[in-house]
């Protein structure tokens, strides 16, 4: 066994680099996990000045209109009554590429929505996929390192990509989606969006339910063939950005219908897998889609930098009636996203026109670099106080939840990383399966070590024997006997 131990920046050995420390088996994540905080904080500061991830993006303004009464599930003002409209801003993006990268690469797409509600801003910060590659935030910096450039060659490194995935079988579901036809959307208008994580809705009586968000494109899903995407990347690397701008400019306003899946709180303890695991989807047979409203994009930004580049989103930007779940990946993002914005845009990023709420803001935050508003004037700057300053509102407290167990670094109970990936493969047509296999074989061919290829083939085989066998054959290898 190697004595080359992984350490913190101050040289202490790391005992668990796969699971963040939680209070009990389901969390929440503990701030005393200094290794997790160090990884996330350092990771947020690794690139200047563009975003560490989601650097290349396009955005638009619009509105959200409620079309179905869901007030019995949530007291959130933006969902309070049918016909209610809330202004919003959305930013679409690729994940791994730099600001100047091509739009039509194979990559998940960021799908970040900011609602300017009467109770403050609410952000849904998701992707165009319902799942993610990993399920614990402690693995996020390592994962993104594999997607970025090799520090020696400054080139993309397929060996690192597949080495990490092969050591992280929970990634298989998302990898299968990424390598399918949906890995390259035809336009930003022709793809779905998802909140991905599980959230909690709470009504006026304090009753809660678990929910997942689904934005279904009303334009229909369309994707690009590999050759067409490569040609467009060479001819017009800003193809998606241009398409979105032109569609809105010409009055062809793209729209999405928002649905939620709703799970009773008690089902989380008895469902067939942990519903907070972001590498899994909830069956729509168990929890059908319920319509909430429509999102329409009808106005382009006037200035790209001021609006699209300086827009900041965080899944921790919440409003009364919407709370978080013990999802380990979400728990880490609650810290990491706002921390990244404080570093990249500044301590006062929330006061920029694109980010500031449209409702009054009363807080005791003062000073900091680039404070460009009245800095609170001469108002009371602390709480509690005896001078009529803003005070807490107990009615808006988050609902309590039970925590039990010992503080430890633990994984999710469920280790079936294969059933849902296999189900996805079996849902595809023969033509779609063929393209999926060809995409994976093409992506894995440059991998330097055969053992990485064989380990990954084993994961595909466990999802579906045909899936693994076809990829093995495409790579000129055999499925390892140990997984048959």
Written description of the protein model:
- This protein has 484 residues and is of the alpha+beta class.
- The chain folds into two domains: 26-146 and 184-358, Catalase core domain (Catalase HpII,  Chain A, domain 1, Beta Barrel), CATH 2.40.180.10; 419-483, no CATH class.
- It is 26% helix and 17% strand.
- The chain has helices spanning 34-43, 140-147, 158-167, 172-178, 226-235, 239-249, 304-309, 328-344, 419-427, 430-444, 450-463, 465-474, and strands spanning 21-23, 57-66, 85-94, 109-117, 120-127, 193-194, 199-202, 208-217, 255-264, 289-299, 322-324, 407-409.
- The strands form two sheets. Strands 2, 3, 4, 5, 6, 7, 8, 9, 10 and 11 form a ten-stranded antiparallel sheet that branches. The chain has a two-stranded antiparallel sheet with strand order 1-12.
- A hairpin with a 2-residue loop joins strand 4 and strand 5.
- The radius of gyration is 23 Å and the shape is globular.
Question: Secondary-structure map with pairings?
Answer:
Blueprint: E1 21-23, H1 34-43, E2 57-66, E3 85-94, E4 109-117, E5 120-127, H2 140-147, H3 158-167, H4 172-178, E6 193-194, E7 199-202, E8 208-217, H5 226-235, H6 239-249, E9 255-264, E10 289-299, H7 304-309, E11 322-324, H8 328-344, E12 407-409, H9 419-427, H10 430-444, H11 450-463, H12 465-474
Antiparallel strand pairs: 1-12, 2-3, 2-10, 3-4, 4-5, 6-8, 7-8, 7-11, 8-9, 9-10
Helix pairs in contact: 1-8, 2-3, 3-11, 4-9, 10-12, 11-12
